[in-house]
Amino acid sequence: MFQYLTYLANDSGWGLALVATVVCCIVIVGLIGTFAYRRMRTQKLCLDTAIDNMSQGLTMFDSSSRLVLCNRRYIEMYGLSPDVIKPGCTVKQVVEHRIETGSLTVSEAESYVDSRQNTLIHGTIVSKAFQLPNGRGIVVTRRPMRGGGWVATHEDITERQKAEAQIAHMAHHDALTGLANRVLLLERLEAALLRVQRGERIAVLYLDLDNFKSINDTLGHSAGDALLRVVANRLRGCLRETDTIARLGGDEFAILQTALEQPTDAELLAKRLRDAVTTPLDVDGHQVLADVSIGITLAPTDGTESSQLLKNADMAMYAAKCDGRGTFRYFEPGMNARAKARRALELDLRNAIVNEEFELYYQPLINLERNEICSCEALLRWHHPERGMITPNEFIPAAEETGLITQIGERVLRKACIEAATWPENITVAVNVSPVQFKNQTLVLTVISALAASGLSAHRLAIEVTEAVLMQDNEATLATLHQLRDLGVQIVMDDFGTGYSSLSYLRSFPFDKIKIDRSFINDVSDMGDASAIVQATTSIATSMNMTTTAEGVETQEQLAKIRDLGCTEMQGYLSNRPMRAQDIAMLFQSRSDAAKSVA
């Protein structure tokens, strides 16, 4: 182009060249302007696209409070009309339209104006949260602009609020049952104790399901979880809205009962809770019979500190366990010492297994027709290194509660079979099996292993069970009993007559032997109810081809009476006390020698 201008200048003179130059400049400027315009349009289009695709709503107002721009998200967020909310409309029109469409209330509109004024007057960034009528949460943040006006962002924080609420819920609630956890319980207990200072009375109840470990081991952990959820719902249904129930872990629960009118209110609640739990439960198609032990402590009577009250209630629950379970106990000051003794006993039990401190004693059973020993019951004794001999009544409950009874029972069964294998061939050995052991699905395998290791014939082993075994899970229990019977093992019902359904259980399983509880034998000579019960039992047993053993026979008068009533065997101090394995072996030898000398 410059060469062309030079040519014009030389050929036509500089005037024409000047004109041409001006024209060229105009063309160049036009080209630059067109390019800049297109570039500005592209930038504006990109900006509009970005603004309309923001996750937040955006509005911009000028210094005269007129809308400069708003994005699509703002319109959609509040359900507004783009024909009303458009550049040039005033803040007042925006507010009125939002009130019309229901996304802003009159009171919120006043707050909206106050927030806007703070931004305009003080030039500060203002953020405020709102709750829309549809339940969604919004945070509006206003920032001042140079030269006046402001820009506002509208953020929907509903999902974030839900997530935060979920996190807060998880921090204060048990994931399995949905009940409060220890953290929330302590918070509410602390708040309740402040009211106790003003004269209110409260109670803390500590609950523990009985035999939950056995149910869990028998039916599986999923069934155990299902059981906990069912129990949690039943317990929750017994409470008022002002009370709090929490799961502390495992099968332990705690309840804060507020505003007691009388101390006995806690006792009434404990009874309702137990009634709720003991109603048969359906868990994964299995009917489960559950029970609960409950400890109760009162404030301010027993203390005014949350940790102390929970500890007191725990000790009271432990006392309920020791008293036979399925009951409740109030806290007493002496329980602390007993709880420490019980924990020490549990620790000693674990050491006793490792150090083999247990020993078997044997008490003979006498066949009344032949006046000969026909069997011996294995009785467990514990030789404590410091406390001396400890009877089963003292340590078996603790062993059952901790699950140690399974290990102890396996060793007892194995040792009894080994020692009985050295006795005369006509003598059987009877071993008691705990309800906890009986729930273990490996019981039959344990029996098979013990027989194989000892070489004892199956027909020389008798398994003694109580009614508590049969009450657990009728179908599973009967299946195990039949498997043991198929092996040739004898099945004996121990302590017959002490339960509510003893006679019905005789119809459900053909026992080989019934052992009549000593409580009936003690009074058998009085010709009263005890005598009639023994007579009826022997008649039923005879008709069903079962042997009957009278337990606890101590006098000649009792012996004569049980003979008359039809008992076929006796066991008690009248004939022999329990004795060590070496002593029972010597007894057999002496009887054998006496029989040979007579012959």
What does this protein look like?
The longest helix has 39 residues, at 14-52. The mean pLDDT is 84. The chain is 52% helix and 21% strand. The protein folds into 4 domains: 2-52; 57-161, 2-Layer Sandwich (Beta-Lactamase); 173-333, Alpha-Beta Plaits, CATH 3.30.70; 354-588, EAL domain (TIM Barrel), CATH 3.20.20. It has 23 helices and 22 strands. It has 599 residues and is an alpha/beta fold. It is elongated and about 145 Å long. Helix 8 (212-219) packs across helix 9, helix 12 (335-355) crosses helix 13 (392-402) and helix 16 (443-454) runs parallel beside helix 18. It has an 8-stranded mixed beta barrel, surrounded by 4 helices. A 5-stranded antiparallel β-sheet has the order 2-1-5-4-3, with helices on both faces.
What is the topological layout?
Elements: H1 2-12, H2 14-52, E1 57-61, E2 67-70, H3 72-78, H4 91-101, H5 106-122, E3 126-131, E4 137-144, E5 150-156, H6 158-172, H7 182-196, E6 202-209, H8 212-219, H9 221-236, E7 244-249, E8 252-257, H10 264-278, E9 281-283, E10 286-288, E11 292-299, H11 306-322, E12 328-330, H12 335-355, E13 358-367, E14 372-384, E15 388-390, H13 392-402, H14 405-420, E16 428-432, H15 435-439, H16 443-454, E17 461-465, H17 467-472, H18 474-487, E18 490-496, H19 502-508, E19 513-516, H20 518-522, H21 529-543, E20 547-551, H22 556-564, E21 569-571, E22 579-580, H23 581-598
Parallel strand pairs: 11-12, 14-16, 16-17, 17-18, 18-19, 19-20, 20-21
Antiparallel strand pairs: 1-2, 1-5, 3-4, 4-5, 6-8, 6-11, 7-8, 9-10, 13-14, 13-21, 13-22, 14-15
